[in-house]
Structure formats: structure tokens, C-alpha cells
From TrEMBL:
Keyword ATP-binding part of the UniProt annotation: no
Annotated keywords: Lyase
Protein name per UniProt: Phosphonate C-P lyase system protein PhnG
Top-level taxon of origin: Bacteria
UniProt-recorded Gene Ontology molecular function terms: lyase activity
GO annotation (BP), single: organic phosphonate metabolic process
Length: 163
């Protein structure tokens, strides 16, 4: 089943993978990563970490930085070694505090990037997340359309009495 406009547009650029996988159910990503780890050797290049990051925003007039608050951040960087000796590195940095999810997505990243065993399942999970994001976007657009105001009925203001 091909739901894509063209085959050249799929898979999406690697920069979009985490966005799509993050929209898919986390349990499915973690289960698939565990299945990959059962067939391949997965090593942490850096230990998965989680914490809080400060969200900074520059003022548009004076360009001063303002701290809007803290956001949860998790990070993982792994190396996946296939049974045939093929090595691939993957990483994930998420606005989420689950280290296990960051590690799972890093494993999927490495697996799909190098086309290691089980990359087909990682690609299917990518499609699941993409479909979820498209549904969310469609519902948001429907809400936006229903709240649109037509100001053309108010007139152009030429009949206003300027005293």
C-alpha cells in the first residue's frame, strides 16, 4: 500500500524521522528496539540522559534573551552492530524525559539509516507516525477553518462619519 505522492519522497529525510517516530506509540518503538537488540549488538556511545533544558527566546526589539521556562529533554547515542559486522550509529534528542524512549529511537535511527535487519519494521513505524501527524494536522486545519472570520462583510469604511 503506497500512500505517498511519489516514491522519491519516501522515506523522508533523516531529519524528520524522530518527529514521525515520536508521534507513533512509544511502546511500539521500544518493543521494536528490543527486538533489534535481540538480533544485533547495541552499544551506548554515550549513556542515555534526561533532564531539563531552559527555553530561551530573544526579544524582537532589543534582542535580549528571556527564559520562558524549562522543558524536559532526553538524549541517546548508540552504535548498532549487525550479525554480519555492519556498524551504524544512531542518535535521538527529544523534548521528553524518557531515556528509554530516546535510546529506542536512537536504535531505530541507526537501523534504518544503515538498512540493518528489521529496518522494514522501522520504516513501517515511521509511516504510522506520519499518518498520526497528518490526522492531527487535518483536525487542526478543520478547527482553524471553522473559526475563520470574513471581514469583507463589514464594508470598506468609506461611509464612516469622520468628525
Amino acid at each position: 500500500m503506497n500512500t505517498h505522492e511519489t516514491e522519491a519522497s519516501w522515506p523522508p529525510p533523516r531529519s524528520q524521522w524522530l518527529r514521525y517516530w515520536s508521534a507513533a506509540p512509544a511502546e511500539k518503538a521500544e518493543t521494536l528496539a528490543a527486538e533489534i537488540a535481540g538480533h544485533c549488538d547495541v552499544r551506548d556511545i554515550t549513556l542515555p540522559q534526561s533532564g531539563l533544558g531552559l527555553l530561551k527566546l530573544p526579544d524582537s526589539a532589543l534582542n535580549d534573551l528571556y527564559f520562558l521556562g524549562e522543558v524536559p529533554v532526553s538524549h541517546a547515542h548508540v552504535e548498532v552492530i549487525a550479525p554480519d559486522g555492519t556498524r551504524a550509529e544512531g542518535g535521538a534528542r527529544l523534548l521528553d524525559d524518557r531515556r528509554s524512549l530516546a535510546r529506542a529511537l536512537a536504535v531505530l535511527d541507526a537501523t534504518l539509516a544503515a538498512r540493518l535487519p528489521h529496518h522494514e519494521q522501522a520504516l513501517r513505524l515511521l509511516e504510522t507516525g506520519r499518518a498520526t501527524l497528518q490526522e492531527t494536522e487535518a483536525s487542526r486545519n478543520a478547527i482553524l477553518t471553522s473559526t475563520r472570520v470574513d471581514f469583507s462583510l463589514l464594508g470598506d469604511g468609506s461611509e464612516d462619519d469622520d468628525e
